[in-house]
Amino acid sequence: MTVAPSDHRYDLKNISWEALVALCRDLGLESYRARQIYQWIFQKQVTDITLMTSLPKRVRELFVKAVHVSSLPIATVAESRDGSKKFVFRTNDGHGIETVLIPERGHATLCISTQIGCALQCRFCFTGRAGLVRNLSPAEIVNQVQGVLIAEQFSAKLPNLVFMGMGEPLANYENTCAALRILMNPWGMNFSHRKITVSTAGIIPQLQRLGADLPVNLAISLNAPTDELRTFLMPINRRYPLHELLDAARRYPLQPRKRITFEYIVLRDINDAPEHAEALARILTRIPCKINLIPFNEHPGVEFRRPDEKTVKRFQSILQKHHFTAPIRYSKGLDIAAACGQLGAAVSQPYQQ
């Protein structure tokens, strides 16, 4: 369930491009007014409708009565020794949304949340321990991006966006796609689809829809080469077993020169043995892909441990022997609980306005 903002007026950041064009038409406005409104909101970052001076005064007065433009206040910012920053945005109903900005060589990556909490209960992930509180609205998803761009004073070079924060994006499918369309709209945020990656634990019906609906990059959180082990780690595998997920991946309509990314969190003495690497190479044969190996990031209350460097490199070399691209991804933000699998502390933390 998505909770509506406390303001009774409709949030223009939740409106699709097509709906805004139709609204302008219904109000007797020229079609180009929709473009101007989108540009004011998403490119000029203006939230006060009275300041949208390219619109006639009567239009601004009409809009102020019926709609508003939201933003998310930043409750806290934590900065890691490695330069990563974890932003906690405060929602109207008092929850925290965690968003992580990760500096990388030549660019930055912004990790976006799509839910408050998560229902999937993956054993290695801190977020799922709180359960699902609610879905985020399109505006709340987009406002994370805008909030960081404003706070960090991004100008020409936009960051890469990865939908890998709190929650399962495809369990909030409609709102996630609505936000993606705003982010990629040339009059909206104008992100290239090549700079956006959506990660999923494998909700197959929505995965198939995503391939047909939007040209973004796809990442699948795999983490095991067998049904038995994957079900132990990720209960969703009971509903969408491995062979069905891999079949969906083979049929996924990839854009030219794109590959699926399979994410594999390496857990000491659980899924890090040579036979696991060999089995992984077998099941991913004939899928255009790369495999991101992510050494487990430890957090309180979980029984898993991080493997040693030698074990991870041995795993990598086996995959490389089978001609897979398999980079080792060392998560940043460990010291501020901002690394992969560590988000979620803000779910239970009340944030008062």
What does this protein structure show overall?
The protein has 353 residues and is α/β, with parallel strands linked by helices. It folds into two domains: 10-68, DNA polymerase, domain 1 (Orthogonal Bundle); 74-336, TIM Barrel (Alpha-Beta Barrel). Helices cover 30% and strands 18% of the residues. The protein has helices at residues 17-26, 32-43, 57-66, 138-151, 173-184, 204-213, 227-233, 242-250, 274-283, 309-321; strands spanning 10-11, 67-68, 74-79, 85-90, 96-104, 107-111, 115-117, 132-135, 160-163, 196-200, 217-221, 260-266, 289-295. Strand 12 (260-266), helix 9 and strand 13 (289-295) form a beta-alpha-beta unit. Helix 1 (17-26) crosses helix 2 (32-43). The longest helix is centred in the middle third of the chain and has 14 residues, at 138-151. The chain is elongated, with a radius of gyration of 21 Å. The mean pLDDT is 91.
Chain-wise SSE layout:
Layout (H helix, E strand, L loop, with lengths): L9 E2 L5 H10 L5 H12 L13 H10 E2 L5 E6 L5 E6 L5 E9 L2 E5 L3 E3 L14 E4 L2 H14 L8 E4 L9 H12 L11 E5 L3 H10 L3 E5 L5 H7 L8 H9 L9 E7 L7 H10 L5 E7 L13 H13 L32
Descriptive labels:
10 helices; TIM Barrel; 353 residues; single chain; two-stranded parallel ribbon; DNA polymerase, domain 1; 18% strand
**CATH homologous superfamily title of the largest domain:** Aldolase class I
- Secondary-structure arrangement, i.e. CATH architecture of the largest domain: Alpha-Beta Barrel
Number of helices: 10
Strand order of the largest sheet: 3-4-5-6-9-10-11-12-13
Order of helices and strands: EHHHEEEEEEEHEHEHEHHEHEH
| Shape, per Cα inertia axes | elongated
> Using only CA atoms, what is the Rg?
21 Å
Strand proportion, as a percent range, falls in 15-25%
What is the CATH C-level name of the largest domain?
Answer: Alpha Beta
Count of the separate structural domains: 2
Q: What name does the CATH topology of the largest domain carry? A: TIM Barrel
Structural class: alpha/beta
Which ranges are low-confidence, i.e. pLDDT below 50, for 5 or more consecutive residues? none
**Largest pleated sheet:** 9 strands, mixed
Approximately how much helix is present in the residues? Answer: 25-40%
Query: In total, how many beta strands?
Result: 13
